[in-house]
Amino acid sequence: MTKSSPILLTQAEVSELAKELGRSSLMGKTINAHTKDLEDFMALPIDVPGHGEAGGYEHNRHKQNYTYMNLAGRLFQITREQRYADFVITLLEEYAEKYLTFDFHVQKNTNPTGRLFHQILNEHCWLLYTSLAYSCVAEVMTDAQQEHIKICIFEPMLDMFTVKYAHDFDRIHNHGIWAVAAVGICGLAIGKREYLDMAVYGIERNNSGGFLAQISQLFAPSGYYMEGPYYHRYAIRPTCLFAEVLHRHMPDVDIYNYKDKVIGNTVEALLSTAYPNGQFPALNDASRTMSISDMGVQVAVSVYSKHYGVDDNLLGMAKIQDRVWMHPCGLALSRALEQAEQKANVGMPFWPSVELNEGPDGTHGAQGFIRMQDKKGDVSQLVMNYGQHGMGHGNFDTLGISFFNRGQEVLREYGFARWVNVEPKFGGRYLDENKSYARQTIAHNAVTVDEKCQNYFDVARADSVHGLPHFFSADNNVISGMSAFANQHYDGLSMQRSVFMLALDELESPLLIDLYRLAGEDEHQYDYSHQYEGQIIRTNFDYQSHQQVSTLGADNGYQHLWNIASGQPSDTALVSWLQNNTYYTWLGTSSNASSEVFFTRTGANDPSFNLRSEPAFIYRTHGKTSLLASVLETHGYFNEEFEQSVNARGKVIDIKVLGHDEVGSVVQITTNNSLITLMVSNQITTESSPHSMTVNQKDYQWTGPYAVDITAIKQEK
């Protein structure tokens, strides 16, 4: 029988990797860390358990088994220590004895079940990594051992994935990427190349499914992945692994140049979404704790560096990760970092502002990421969603924003309602509260209309519409901004949001300015929600703390919000809070006659304590066509240990809506030293388009999508 060779390694590459053993390079540290982890796991008894809860011992043990087989296979090639190969072979033979004795999983899920896991997705992961491991050790296996493993594991899995679950194989989804990558890699490992062709071009070999269809439809020309950064970092690993497989075994596809270099574009897009602290914004269903240190992102950074080149940001990213992919791609990055550090200190990465278009052809809206540095080098990042829904993992929050500075998320994304792999909490799967709260519009920093969710929580309706970009401007050191429309997300109502960061000498950090316009013919209730963290410091209006609390509403996420306190501002509302060491002051107003502010906390109608208890404040107003306007100032410093509090009150005094119509919106912001007039077009416009409005007998004229006028206020002597 022909001996299989490592799918992702040549002997020359293995020799180069072996030179890193014991070195202090990034690759040397990576190999050492993997070796230690593997040795610890190999000290445990071999175990191939049966079925168990999702996220339980059995689930995690199968996951550990494939993870460490994959590491052991590569470490065998690098070190030539036979015991690593023996570990893989022994474990594979144990699976071969048991796999077909397992029925399909007893714990049913919304996804098809496997013989090892509660959903077939996890079985795809198992096959992908195990096939790579097998290809690394097959050279020291007997023909009988190889045949036993092929007949009892690999061939039944391939049949299950491409026949029994054929409908899932060609599904355009992150599950589909894992499926095609696993099948293609396994086909190569056991010498059945027809499965590689199927994985690339689809079951019918007509590009209706398969890897090329996946990366063509899931990734926009900008590289943005429609389900958001959390699922992007999950999909990026099989994407990059399989791309490297095709680069080596199907060079005619020219995968790294395919669809205008979509592989490189999507890696760059993923990295450019991250906050300055390396965490990903929790757009759509997402964990709030996922960061660039994820193993999939490590693989992606290594692949990008090898095939698209290394720059300062990639080097800074690798330094933060402190690991590379244990592969020749990772070795290229490790050596580049080593050379760079010999010349100069490698700094932190700073990704520029970017607008990432959505949809296969880039016409389904976009996601905007604006970054601005203050005088001390701290980066503020403003994110706005004006793209497409994101399929089954999409949240109903078009025009929602998040805001980050001073190392923390300030206007926060809730993320998903899920206890990942905590088996007593619904098997670690998505909880009912994910639909009833986390995905609802009120759970985000957006405006909820009439206590209804956008698109009325109809996924098909949401998938049929998308945001409409207005402008994205981030090349000015004083002001950067973006604007978009969402005109089909509520019946009879169009929405426009324009958000800016403005740098003023008198302010410590860029000022966040937010204009949210809603246009309709009927009277509506508008709830302008702000998810924050910390302690309320002060307000400029009286509020009533409710001794007997009730929910804010009955449905659409409101049933999970305790109405803790409420008050009615007489004019511009002010809410100031302390988050860790920093003060934040929000001032908000609207074009309507009256308003009310509610202070809420999650946890109502939550008998299993699934929701995190988090605060928010909601600015409520009523009207037809309305403009809601606010600013958020970052200021001061607090240190409880040293009993220090500096600049606890901000320097922004007021914000007023001067006027708005179908032409534009004009607001005025007053600080201690400045009078700022911001004029924004409410129509799709060009950089040279003139605009004119008359408000209270005063003319306002500007050119382009927006303009700002900053006038110094003369101080009395």
Descriptive report:
It contains 17 helices and 27 strands. It has an 8-stranded antiparallel sheet with strand order 7-8-9-10-19-16-15-12, with no helix packed on it. A 6-stranded antiparallel sheet has the order 6-11-18-17-14-13, with no helix packed on it. It has a 5-stranded antiparallel sheet with strand order 1-2-3-4-5, covered by helices on one side. A hairpin with an 8-residue loop joins strand 1 (354-357) and strand 2. Helix 2 (26-42) crosses helix 3, helix 11 (229-249) runs antiparallel to helix 12 (258-273) and helix 13 (295-308) runs antiparallel to helix 14. By secondary structure, the chain is α+β, with helices and mostly antiparallel strands. Helix content is 32%, strand content 26%. The model has no long low-confidence stretch (mean pLDDT 95). The termini are far apart.
